Amino acid sequence: MPDTLLATAPPDAAVIEISKLSTRFGDHVVHADLDFDVRRGEIFAVIGGSGSGKSTLLREMILLHRPDAGSIRVLGVDLGDIDAAATLALRLRWGVMFQHGGLFGSLTILENIGLPLREHRTLDNAVVDALAAEKLALTGLQPEVGAQYPAELSGGMLKRASLARALILDPELLFLDEPTAGLDPESAGGVDQLVRKLRDRGGLTIVMITHDLDLLWQLADRVAVLADGKVQGIGSMAELAQMDQPAIRKFFDGPRGRAAQEQSKSPAAAHQAAAPRAAAPRAAAPQAASIRS
User: Fold this and answer.
1) What does the domain layout of the chain look like in residue ranges?
2) Torsions phi, psi of 8, nearest 5?
3) Alpha-carbon 249 to chain mean position
4) What predicted TM-score, i.e. pTM, was given to this entire model?
5) The pLDDT of residue 226
């Protein structure tokens, strides 16, 4: 059995380590020597404009695309030197909530949530259904939703169902791809609250790709800004707000950026920062403040 199959990160180690990462599509440079890490137990966000390589970076971190150069280590495993058995073992240690849900339309919500257990564990159907129902409840959905099909759910409910499936194997690491995209302000606020609760209750490390400025101010411990193939800055939103690079300033200088920053300074937001986060009013109406990719 290969050593990578058994590799585990020490408690104080970085969960994700990216070094000198480079990616090209033909002559187009997507990433040029990216360097950053993700610390255990933090909510880490990646932001950037259209074509900055956010989605490609996510695909590389979850083994759906191989970079041209550099290295990625996830949970102590080097993704550049990994065989099929080690790949499967690693994928069972993380969960992914895809932007559009990724649920199977022919399966009920409960069947969708339980599918990874049926594929990768030897459990009775009744046990699988019971565990799936627990994750359904954890994400705030009512039991009767389990009998419905994806096409019957609202956007916010689909996001929650997709998150329940991502959590079914009790992962150490959770990837969220645009968790509030396309949601109304109330639903987006509910997702904020849920993500915070998951991190605070389970000690999850969470990596998210997002354009939602409210989400960044309210949830992210650190944020990496991608532009021109490089990481332009990494820090909390308060730290990034003090930086002068044009690629960073656009997230703070526009009306939506200013509104989200002001919202984060409100007494309610300060209270939420010190406790499991409740849904806060979104800074922009009728849609959440964002920078479009």
Assistant:
1) 100-170
2) -135, 145
3) 23
4) 0.83
5) 94
